[in-house]
Every structure is written in C-alpha cells, then in structure tokens.
Design a protein that fits this description.
- The complex is a heterodimer of chains A (373) and B (348).
- Chain A has 373 residues and is mainly alpha-helical.
- Chain A has a single domain, classed as Orthogonal Bundle (ABC transporter involved in vitamin B12 uptake, BtuC), CATH 1.10.3470.
- In chain A, 74% of the residues lie in helices and 4% in strands.
- In chain A, strands 1-4 form a two-stranded antiparallel ribbon.
- In chain A, β2 and β3 form a beta hairpin.
- The longest helix of chain A is centred in the last third of the chain and has 51 residues.
- The radius of gyration of chain A is 23 Å and the shape is globular.
- Chain B has a single domain, classed as ABC transporter involved in vitamin B12 uptake, BtuC, CATH 1.10.3470.
- Chain B is globular, with a radius of gyration of 21 Å.
- Chain B starts with a helix and ends in a 7-residue tail after the last helix.
- Chain B is mainly alpha-helical and 348 residues long.
- In chain B, α5 packs parallel to α7.
- A two-stranded antiparallel ribbon of chain B has the order 1-4. Chain B has a two-stranded antiparallel ribbon with strand order 2-3.
- Classes of the chains: A mainly alpha (373), B mainly alpha (348).
- Chains A and B meet through α7 and α14 of A and α7 and α14 of B.
Amino acid sequence: MLTKEKVKSFLVNQAVPILFLIIVAVGAPLSGFSLQHLTQEMTYRLARDSFVVLSLLVPIMAGMGLNFGIVLGSMAGQIGLIFITDWGIRGIPGLFIAAVLGTPIAILLGFMCGSILNKARGKEMVTSYILGFFVNGLYQFFGLFMLGPIIPITKPSMLISRGYGVRNTVDLLGVRGAIDKLIDLKIGGVSIPVATFLLIAAFCFFIVWIRKTKLGQDIRAAGQDYELARLSGIAVDRTRIISIIISTVLACYGQIILLQNLGTVNTYSSHEMTGVFAIAALLVGGATVAKASLMNVFVGVLLFHMMFVISPMAGKRLIGSAQLGEYFRVFVSYGVICIALIFHAMKERARAQKHREELMIGESSLNHGGEAR
Amino acid sequence: MKNFLKKLVESAGWARIIIGLFLLLLFIIAPFVQVRLDTSIQDVLVRVGMNGVLVLAMVPMIRSGCGLNFGLPVGIIAGLLGALVAVEMNLTGLTAIFTAILISLPIAVLLGFSYAQIINRVKGSEMMIATYIGFSSVALMCIGWMILPFSHPTMVWGFTGQGLRTTISVADAFQDVISNILSFQIGDFFYFPTGMLIFFGLACYFVHLFFKSKTGIAMTAVGKNPSFARSSSVNIDRMRTLSVIFSTALGAIGIIIYQQSFGFIQLYMGPFFMAFPAIAAVLLGGASLKNATITHVIVGTFLFQGVITMAPSVINSMMQSDLSEIIRIILSNGMIIYALTRKEVYKR
C-alpha cells in the first residue's frame, strides 16, 4: 500500500535522482537536440560507461565506501591499450591482449590498494582517493620516462618529439569500436552495440552470482560489521583486499571498453575523468556510500550523462555561452558527490546517536529494575 | 651516541630524516652539476615565504580535530576576490595588498562559517567532504569568474570585454611589495625576500600566541579529547566553527602573499589542487591528523619546498628532462597516504 510515510521516505531517499530528473527534463527541450539524437547518444554512453560504474559495487558491499581507487585499474587498462597500439594488433584480439596485459598490473595495484586501505580503516575513501593521485604520479613517470628508453616503443609517431615518452593522445584506430560494431543492431535509426551490452549483462550476472558464493557472503559480512565478521572467523582483511582487487581488475576491463568506444586515449588524463564520472554517475542513480544496486548504476549513468550531453547546449541557448554550460557540468559532477557524501555522513551520525541513546535507555531501565527489587 | 641517534629518529620520524638527508644531498650535488647554490637557496627561501601562510592555514583545523584542511580552496577563493577588487580599484603597492587582505577577510569569515556548518554535521568524514567542498566551490567560482562584473582592462578578456582572464598579472598592482621590504641583493644571483619571510614569521607568531590564549587552549582540547572538553563546558561545535573560520582566513591571506611573490592571480581551475602541497608540507614537517604545531609548519614548508625546488633543477641538469611535476605529485600524495595510514598514538 502507498502510505504517506512511504511516499515521503521514497522522496527523501531518492532526492538526488529526482533532482537530476528535473534538471534533465528542463534542460532537454532547451538544448534543442532531437529525440533520436539523444536516444542514440544515451545508448552509446550506457554501453560505454556502465561497466566502469559496475566495478564500484563490490567494495561498497564490503563496506569500504566508494572505491576512488578504480583509477588504478583504468591506468592498467590504458597501459595495455598503449602496448597493443604500438604492436599494431587490431580488432578483438587487440582488445583481448590489452586486457591480458592489464590484468596482472591491475591485480598488483589492487593488492597494494587493498593492503593500504586496511591500514586506514574508517578513512578508506579519502585514502583511496589520494592513492589515485599517488599512483597517477608513478604512471606519469612510467609513461613519460620509461616508455621509449627502457621499454621500447617501436612507432615513433606515438612518442613525444624529444624521442621518449608517450604522447598526450594515442589514437586507437585499430581497435576503435571493435566490440561495439561486432553486433550492430539498428532499431528505428538508433544503432545498438549489442556485444557491449552482452558484456555488461555478463558482469551483472557476475555481481548477482558472487553475492551467493562463500566469498560474497564474507564480503557482505565484512561490510555489515567488521568486528563481528572477524570474531566469527572470517579473514576480514583478506576479504577486503580481494574485493578491491576484483574492483580494480574490472575497472581495467571497463576502461578498455570505454576507450574502444571513444577511439582515443588521453594518456595522462582519461583515467582521472573516468573515476570522477563513474562515482558521480553511481551517486546520481540514488546509490549511497553504503548501499548500491544494479538499478542505481543504470539510472545513474542515464541521468548523469543526459545532463552531460545537454548542459553545454542548454547553457548556450539560455545564457549564450557554451563555456558556462561546460563549467556547470563540472560543478554538478563534483557537487553531486559532495552532497551525497554529506547526506550519508549525516545519516550515519544520526544512526550512531540513536544507537547510543538506546544503549543509555537500556542501562537506565536496567538500573531501575534493580532498585525496584 | 647510539642513544642520541635513537632519540633523534624517534622525535623527528623516519620520513623527515630521509627527506632531510635527501635535501642535504641535493644541496651537495648541486655545484657539481652546474646548478648555482646561491640561486637555489634564493629559490627555496622565496618559495618558503610564498607558501608558508597557506601551510599555516592547516594548523587551526588539525588542532580542533577537523583533520587536514582539504577545503583550503574555500579560503583561496576569498583571497582571490580580495585581490581582484584591489586590482579593479586601481590600487598599487602596500595599499593594494592591505586592501586586498581587508576585503578578503570578511568574505573568508562568511565562507568559513558556512563551510564549518557542513563540517560540524559530518564529524568523522570531514576530510573526504572537505575535498569535495573545495572542488565544488572552485567549479562554482569558474562560473562566477565568467559573470562577475569586473571591468579593469588588465583583468577581462580583451576580445569580448567580459569574463575574467585565466591568469591576471599583478606586476603593476602589488607584485613583490611585501617581499621587497628590507630585502637585499648579494651579488647578481642572490635575493633575500626579507619582508615576506618576516610576514610569515609574524603570522606564525600570531598563531602561536592564539594557541596560548584561553580560546586557543580550549580549541586544542576539543581536538585532543572531545569528552574532556565537553565536561569542562567547552562548546565543541563553536570551537570547531572558529577553527574552520581561522583556517579559511589564513588561506585567504596566504594566497594573497603567494600572488604578490608569484606575480599572477590564477583563476578558474588554478586553486583546484592547491590544498595538496600545503597538506603535504605540514605532514612532512611532522604533523599528524590530530596534531600540528608551528614548528611542523616551518620545518615542513622548508623541507617540502626545498625538495620540490632542488630535485627538479639538479635532476634536470643531470638528465636533461623535466621531472618537477611528477616529483611534486608523488612526494605530496605519498606524504598524505603515509599520514592517513599511520596509527595514531593517543596520549591522554
């Protein structure tokens, strides 16, 4: 039954998606894009970005919050793509080899990230966030100084003119759209990259399946109560590391899928953008730091990217400046993460407060009982 | 001797000793790779003066238990507004600097107060949220810089006459006016920015005095032991609010000092990452998430700025390649991770 309370709690819990729905509903007609154009754009973006966003789910299950460390996986994927471009391996085999190359790097980085996060329990998000920057420094060193002199790059066109270090952008002509165009279904003038969606569907099944395994149970137990899980004999720290490794490796594959759609790698910035957008999209979809579902992922990607597509045009039509719309969407990406984090922290505090009060009431009633006797 | 060394390591911490030795090594190598020692020392001193007050802005919030001030851009925005107004009014010299500071302070208090309202509601996850408050306010101000009604020809885009430029030169307004007070030159290659270092020293002394006052001690108590503070009838939220305002105001002053030495006002995404080097410096100085002193600020600023000034110039002349940005990224973020993962030892 729909009661007043239920409606109210729905509105409160889904405040962020509802707000975005309003922004999109107002902005879409203003942008002047045709319905077909928007549908096509959303289909592509859903195929492109969902995989990366999905990779955030496992650490949330493990109670580690938003894993800003997915950029580590993204970097691993990019390293794989840089190599296959240099070696000139095209199409699906190219992407497959990129994934094979990226996997061990992602596992290593994920292991490192997980171990560090175990040392910073309670501060996982901010630590994984800074860790992203730290590894970005190592990655830049690798890209600018190791590639060329130490690890040979055969194509001079990929190198900076000084003779070593990979250029700012790498063209992925050989693998561009390799998965998207594998099965290209056209419905009413909108082309649908079926193969990419199949991969995403496989990932969704993986998430559903892993929840039922022993590992999944352990992950969820660790997420609900660290101490309790530890006392009941679960190797919590190990479980947490595994969940971060899963997330990092999947983010690596996600980045490969994302970049085969875009067709170019911005060697030193693609991964940063991936991290911010993935987390913002998940939160826009109504997920919180502690709870996220498959539904949140897809609703979030749709709404966030809709805002993304329409805001420069809407800004131009409305105020006469596309740049303003551009800044608006940067502001919204960061603002939505900010607001979602604030809501979550406030809710957590209220819960802790309530818990404390309950304990106190319990104690005092116990004391009264004692006196009466 | 062995005991002395052990004590030294314990009190200074490994990180500081390693970085300190590394810096010393850089100074020793420098002359052998054709890097002038006097210019290097000058560069380090100038950058210590430039960044010092921004690092100092970390202290109040750490002391009151609000953690590292990742929201430093909030204060920086206040400082930018002050500096812009001073340039817009066609002021020059010390008048321009002090007008900029005077205008930025009320803005900083206002912004700091609002920032504190959020920080007080999210106890326990201040740092993550502060980071995003910083980022969102920088992004919001990007829109602001485009539409605010400034019109001074050196500041707005020449083509349209609207919207502020990305970098605005302060050469005609207030470049080096504080640095040049009592400054002197030795030879052709060494300039000592006396005024700026005195300003930094005075700011440190002022903060030091504040933490000796009744309010300052209460603020420290809130950070060290909230339940003790509460039972001594200290209003915790009020102290935290005060500390956030204090940090924000120091951030505003800090960026104005930075600009007068740097020579440019950087708008738009300029302030985006400015909190990180300041945080890294104070941590390198030996501060933790719960404790920071003036010594930490001074030692940390010197070590951090020393390494990121010296390392690139020495390495560049050895290998002819530019590593400065990468060293800065790895060092500053590595330092922050080290602090986040360190077990806090509670001394009660």
